[in-house]
Amino acid sequence: MALRENTEIKRKSNLAVKSTYRNFPMVPRVVFGTGCFEQLGEILLPHRKNADAPMIYLVDDVFEGKDLPNRLPVIFSDQVIFIPADEEPKTGQVDALVEQIRSNHQEIPSGIIGIGGGTLLDLAKAVALLLTNKGSSSQYQGWDLVRKPAIYHVGIPTISGTGSEVSRTTVLNGPKQKLGINSDYTIFDQVLLDPNLSIGVPKDQWFFTGMDCFIHCVESLNGTFLNAFSQSYGEKAMDLCKEVFLGDLEAWESREKLMMASWHGGMSIAYSQVGIAHAMSYGLSYLLGIRHGLGNCLVFNQLDDYYPEGVQLFRKMLAKQKIQLPSGVCSNLTEDDFNTMIGVAMSMEPLWENALGPDWRRDITADILLEMYRKI
Ligand code: NAD
Ligand code: ZN
User: Fold this and answer.
1) Contact yes or no for 339/287 (Cβ under 8 A)
2) pLDDT at 15 over 80
3) Average pLDDT, stretch 194-198?
């Protein structure tokens, strides 16, 4: 039986057994538009508690010495902390930042503002949560373990694709695994979408982070968890990705559309899940530190059997944008290395279940994953 038909049947059987439905929060406030970054000061003002309760800006250090920090509405005891995005966020890093903020200020901050890509957005979410919840961030990796609401937190993306700006998770590398803090309290209180902030993103990075969004769409739209809610967002995000990566848009239009694609792609997976590329990419990230967007692309390029149409489209986008994927990434790995990656990938059960249905273990074996990893 063709995989697609198979997925269709599994999707129906999945739907038939559902009796309760998740009640999801959404970002309550969003401002969109070129130049809206200038409104940040007035947006933050009503949320300032007093002069000793600062706004803390966590800013990607790619902006250090540039114009952006001068445009931040820094007053009273506000603090700007520049953070490199070379590595994806870690639980230890979150704990250290929380400690630093606590010791630098007399009062708990009025708010945390994350400015950057998925790395900085996730750090901002996690720091906001850990300022009100005791202990280490690693204690909260998992589903719905957070007890208290976070402090006010704002997300300002400067590169588009991850959907972190709308998601209820912050993905952290912890002592045991790479896993999100999934919680209703993780969601940003405010998001500011200014397409001009993504001017200057290097082309390769633009493509890889953008493909994170495209892959969210493919995995959501072809998953067994799909419902009309996810589909409506996923299809819109997919159309926008096609315009951006296969069309000939003006630069400003491409920035605007990719920003909205990221938003819709993120909304699409809220009610479904990602799939095989993400499960296997977590393995690459855990063992080799390969970034999320690139890792997804490397895996997705091997998934012809699972997402045939998506992979064809992906290759067209690679060609149109003249992007060369690295090769031989797994060529010098040992058997233990492969086993580690396979273990991490296989532990992502909901992702496999979304991709292939509840009996996914019948279709996916360690040998199948090994063969795909070897080709990367
Ligand atoms: P990133 O934040 O890691 O940034 C990638 C690179 O782009 C960095 O070098 C950064 O400095 C640079 N950059 C960002 N904005 C720039 C700009 N305007 N000009 C020049 N350079 C700029 O990349 P990402 O792909 O957005 O995020 C990846 C992270 O997001 C991973 O940690 C992943 O786990 C996480 N993620 C989270 C979610 C979620 O729902 N929370 C979803 C997907 C991915
Ligand atoms: Zn992703």
Assistant:
1) no
2) no
3) 98
DSSP-derived pairing of the beta strands 55-60 and 79-83: parallel
Closest CA to 81 of 113, 45, 105: 113
pLDDT for the residue 66: 97
Q: Which atom of ligand 1 is nearest to the CA of 119?
A: 2
Residues β-bridged to residue 82: 59
Q: Among 1-15, 80-94, 189-203, 306-320, which stretch is predicted with the lowest mean pLDDT?
A: 1-15
Beta carbon of 126 within 6 Å of any ligand 1 atom: no
Q: State the chain's mean pLDDT as an integer.
A: 95
pTM exceeds 0.85, yes or no: yes
Contact between 59 and 82 (Cβ < 8 Å): yes
Residue 173: CB within 6 Å of ligand 1? no
353 lines ligand 1 (CB under 6 A): no
Return the pLDDT at 177. 81
**Could you tell me which of 160, 169, 195 has the C-alpha nearest to residue 89?**
169
| Six token digits for residue 212 | 């994170």
